Amino acid sequence: MTTQNMPFVLFGSGGHAVSVADLLEATGVNDIYAFSLPNHENLTKYKAISGETIEANLRSLNLVLAIGSLELRKSFMQQNLKIFQQGRFPTLIHPKSYVSPDLKIGKGSTIFANAYVGPSCIIGDFVVVNTNSVIEHNSIIGDTVMLGPSVTLCGNVNIGDDSFVGVGACISPKIKIGKNVTVGACSFVNTDVSSNRKVYGLPAREIK
Ligand SMILES: CC(C)(COP(=O)(O)OP(=O)(O)OC[C@H]1O[C@@H](n2cnc3c(N)ncnc32)[C@H](O)[C@@H]1OP(=O)(O)O)[C@@H](O)C(=O)NCCC(=O)NCCS
Q: What structural domains does the chain harbor?
């Protein structure tokens, strides 16, 4: 059985999970199970699977982190360390995106339709590059970063772990954004942003 033929399990059941399932189906995957978080809706289109079954079959499942909220993603990962350390989390790339062949990308990252990732970029683990986003050449994205739809990173941009860039934001060339930064929707970032800051606007400024 090839890796692609092993069943896929989605962690999450909200809008982001629906989009990830759509991506999987676009790549020809149709053996999909859904693990819904406690007190969250169920993704009824797919077969349900329990945490015990997942743990018992860790090496024969493809696991996908499909939780849209960055906060919830991080807490879910912390609460399920064994699964995240030992499970198989493939990188998912929509067939209608363009990704430069020299991309270095970590496990569990997802690149949605119409995204463009230029040459000499590095993307960490569990990163979401949303629909229609552009990552230009020589950019470096840390772990657990989430880029909203239609984000543009010009060349040589650097984004630290756990940061979130809102829909439609544009980051100027050579800008460095620290860890755990939030960039508001439709912002234009033209100065470096240090870690643990929240910025928005044209140009983006810190929200106190
Ligand atoms: C920047 C952001 C994180 C701030 O959230 P928040 O701390 O809850 O702040 P609020 O929504 O209370 O907004 C505070 C003020 O900033 C303004 N504001 C918020 N986001 C803004 C933005 N991106 N651009 C301009 N103004 C913004 C609000 O209108 C409000 O103004 P007011 O005080 O005059 O009424 C949030 O607004 C945002 O942009 N989130 C990104 C959403 C997104 O892209 N989701 C992607 C889904 S895939």
A: 3-86 (3.40.50), 92-196 (2.160.10.10)
